[in-house]
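Re: the 443-residue chain
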Amino acid sequence: MGRQTDVATAARGLLVAGVVWLVYAVLWPFIFVQSSGEYVSRLSGATAIIADWQTPIHALVFLCLGALLALATLSWPDRNPRRDRWMLAGIVFLCLGLELAQVAVPDRHAAITDFLIDALAASAGFLATGRLLRRRPQWASRFAGPLVITTRGLAIALAVAIAALAITFHARTGLQNWDPACTLLLGNETTGQRPWRGQVAEWAIYDRPLEPDQLAQVQPVAAYDLRGSQTADLRAVGETIVDAVVRTDALTIDVTCATDDLEQSGPARIVTLSYGHHHRNFTVAQRGRELVFRLRTLTNGPNGTRLEPCWPDVFVDTAEHRHTLNYAAGQVRFFVDGQQRRPVVRLYDLRAQLAVQSAAGEIIAVIVLFLPLGALIRAGWSTRRRRTGVWLACGMLSPWLVVLVVAAMWAGHTVTWWSVLLAAVITLAGAVVPTAHSTERMQ
């Protein structure tokens, strides 16, 4: 294969990886506004002109993406102005789409200036690189070596990172980092700024994973009948709870309560063992109609929000309901009035590793990690034959999937075989990204 073909192939792999990671960075943590009215309100604020320290970073990232796009088309046989115009239109729509999608992410701030800077930078990178290589095609050989080395280096680094994340998260699902200084409260946070409007009738915590029909057979670590009380300060039992839970690395929280407001936010604390907004052992809370559970583990962080399990349509009325959550071996299960709610949340899976909060987080995480892996493998060790490239990707992928499975089994966790299969399929999808062939060489 010619040097121009090598450059185009490596650039295509890098371009796929770059676009996937850019979308992840822009939309993370994949929590979106729930109403069109809120979206429109946020969209009106996106017309503001904003320039800060992120502006040059935006420009540099999109300049590089534009240059990669030009290099990816280097092996095409001739110059086509109409094709270039379509490429530029695609760049503009990509930048516009990213900003419009960002409007729907509550913690992100879209701005018209970001769109203009991104579109101009990407267009400039595409046009300048394309013009330079058309005038001096021999310069392509200078890009070939660094691009191929970069592609291979990223592929190896990504594969190692995937394996390291899997081993780390499977090995660190324990509760040994719980803080005995945290305070147990019902109905609010220790700062008094996250009030919950409702009544807690009964509350109990156990030091093992239990289902609702097993609770009566086991002595709780702490239990209270609080009918008629809206808030309670239970500071004396915090350390007792921590000692018991850390000893078993498991817990069950059982709360019988009724909300007075179906649209509370914050999220509003029903029961929490914490101090401050950003430091806790666990929190059960209400956010709109969702029940939110924050749990501190070795990998979920001191605030318990790296992966925040939540279940929709829990608070659908103001009647009294019994909510039971249990945790053991990295898995959270939730029951309402004795009936289990899906999903079972695993604090060690790919969704947790990338801190993706969406219900489709596992699929998003697989795409973010394994689609670039397949594209980079194919581009870094490209061959003339597509089938050979796919088998190469399979050969390099297999050891890492084995690591994922072995890490889960070693930690005693459930192996989610559909995720393993999905990872393999997505990697192969990345590996069939069109590779530049010698028949595409410039005339």
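The longest helix spans residues 140-171.
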